[in-house]
Design a protein that fits this description.
The protein is built from five helices and eight strands, in the order ααββαββββββαα. The N and C termini lie far apart (about 35 Å). The relative contact order is 0.20. It is an alpha+beta fold and about 200 residues long. The chain has an eight-stranded antiparallel β-sheet. A hairpin with an 8-residue loop joins strand 1 and strand 2. About 20% of the residues lie in helices and about 35% in strands. Helix 3 packs across helix 5. The longest helix is centred in the last third of the chain and has 15 residues. The N terminus is likely disordered.
Length: about 200
């Protein structure tokens, strides 16, 4: 799906599907991260939306999110992120996660940015990474960052993600939360810290 089509769908889908509509930005406290579970019954994966306000201009936050190979410095569980292909409209990024109990997961993301003076959207979807075995990767993940100005020098950061970890061995159900719910507040806080540091 093209980024333009994804954006069009975001305007047409129910409010619960996207952070921009599911979370009232006006009610967010300073440095608060709000997360909402919007998973659909019967879906093999989990869907979440989240939002926060970052005390920095949109362009600075957008720049941090597009520094893919720096993700290990501020994204939870991210051991490495390597750009395997780069083009004008997208980049392919190979991600390796280190989870608790020595579990390793790898996947390749197609990152598609759309940047203007009033917004920054970074959409991603999982694409095939040849050579990976099923037990080394996850079944699927898609999502997007959506940034808009929020007053003078501040940015509203909206995040939506769907993750299907695939078959989970008995007793390892915590992997689902490590890949989604538990890591989302850490992810947004990590972005905030990275922006401040830079």
């Amino acid at each position: 799906m093209s980024l333009a089509r994804a954006f069009l769908l975001s305007c047409l889908l129910p409010a619960s599907a996207f952070a921009a509509d599911a979370i009232d930005l006006k009610s967010l406290g300073e440095k608060e991260v709000r997360v909402v579970d919007v998973s659909k019954t019967g879906s093999p994966g989990k869907s979440f939306v989240a939002a926060t306000i970052v005390n920095a201009p949109l362009q600075e936050v957008c720049k941090v999110l597009q520094q893919y190979e720096s993700y290990p410095a501020f994204m939870p569980n991210t051991h490495s992120a390597k750009v395997s292909h780069s083009a004008a409209t997208h980049a392919l990024v190979d991600v390796t996660l280190k989870l608790p109990m020595g579990k390793i997961k790898k996947y390749r993301l197609r990152m598609e940015p759309a940047v203007s003076s009033t917004s920054c959207v970074l959409a991603w979807k999982q694409v095939p990474w040849p050579g990976l075995k099923q037990e080394e990767t996850i079944a699927d993940t898609t999502g997007q960052w959506h940034l808009t100005p929020h007053g003078a020098g501040r940015t509203a950061v909206r995040y939506s993600v769907y993750t299907d970890p695939g078959p989970i061995p008995f007793g390892l159900g915590w992997i689902v939360d490590s890949l989604s719910k538990d890591s989302i507040p850490q992810t947004l806080e990590g972005v905030r810290r990275r922006v401040v540091k830079l």
